[in-house]
Amino acid sequence: MTALLEARQVSKVFGGGLFDKRVTVALDDFSFSVESEPPRVVAVVGESGSGKTTLARLLLGLISPTTGNVLYRGNDLQSLPRDQRRNFLRDVQMIFQDPYEVYNPFYRVDHVLETPVAEFKLANSAAARRALIHESLRAVGLRPEETLGRYPHQLSGGQRQRIMVARAVLLRPRLIIADEPVSMVDASLRATILDSLRQLNRDYGMSIVYIIHSCSSTRSRSRIRSTSGAPSRCATTLPWTPTALRLSKSPRASSPPTPPQAPRLKRVAAT
Ligand SMILES: Nc1ncnc2c1ncn2[C@@H]1O[C@H](COP(=O)(O)OP(=O)(O)OP(=O)(O)O)[C@@H](O)[C@H]1O
Ligand SMILES: [Mg+2]
User: Fold this and answer.
1) From the CA of 96, which ligand is nearest?
2) What is the pLDDT of residue 41?
3) Backbone angles phi, psi at 139, to 5 degrees
4) Which of helix, strand or coil describes residue 145?
């Protein structure tokens, strides 16, 4: 079966050009794939600078690989025909580390929910749109009356992040790429957000690529947790058993006259 999304020997090198001569190998020779069925949870684990966000941006087609390909249903993301691009934009959604970046401060938060409903014609009346948005907010544990009509700065980080998860519920994508979605959220809210994601996987059949910071973490089958005393960013317990891929840290950036280092970042483990 053709994979829903596949990274095939993808590498990304930044710099080395006229304006930025330093070369950084952000990702090297990374391969993995997510099928449409059955829904999976894949955890990508790596320390700071190991290329996790770069990988997420590559998988979304926000940047292009230096070598290798990212394929959506067997077609290269960089040259998707228009209709397939539209399917891709619906099928694959992103939840960012810092939800604040996604919001326009001048719009009420309703905007991030109304836009996809309009864009993908998910409702044919104002009442249907309202019902859909309310349902998606409740699905992630938010009360519509406490959330809608507010500006991003009037909500907590956890609420802002859960609205992004609600947006994913609305669109019913096949795959969600979540780049450290709870690292900037209060510890008490982490479980709620992780549970919402788990629910999307279990109840709506969505696959999830869950990108997580590793620090000096110890890993068990369902748990990715730091040793004591580590920053809170590292202490996350996943409420599911993911397939784990580990990224190791990129070599230091080099600058001329030192020749560019050979790419060394590899996917080192898959369970
Ligand atoms: N646009 C860019 N230009 C130059 N270098 C970049 C760019 N984006 C990322 N890098 C470099 O690529 C490497 C990987 O960065 P990336 O943001 O993917 O790491 P990360 O694993 O997400 O780190 P963190 O856990 O801190 O979020 C870093 O050395 C970073 O400085
Ligand atoms: Mg990152």
Assistant:
1) 2
2) 87
3) -60, -25
4) helix
Question: Which pair of structure tokens corresponds to residue 79?
Answer: 């040259």
Distance 178 CA to ligand 2 centre (A): 11
Backbone angles phi, psi at 211, to 5 degrees: -95, 130
For 21-45, write each residue's pLDDT tens digit.
Answer: 788 999 999 998 998 888 888 888 8
Torsion angle, CA of 206/97/2/121, rounded to 10 degrees? Answer: 60
This prediction's pTM? 0.81
Domain at 5-31+38-103+174-257+265-270: CATH architecture: 3-Layer(aba) Sandwich (3.40)
Query: Domain locations in the chain?
Result: 5-31+38-103+174-257+265-270
Nearest CA to ligand 1 atom 2: 14
Residue 186, classified by CB atoms within 10 Å of its CB into exposed (0-12), middle (13-18) or buried (19+), is: exposed
73: left (phi over 0), alpha (psi -120 to 50) or beta: left
Which among 204, 206, 223, 201 has a CA at the least distance from the CA of 214?
Answer: 223
User: Shortest CA distance to 207 belongs to which of 216, 198, 215?
Assistant: 198
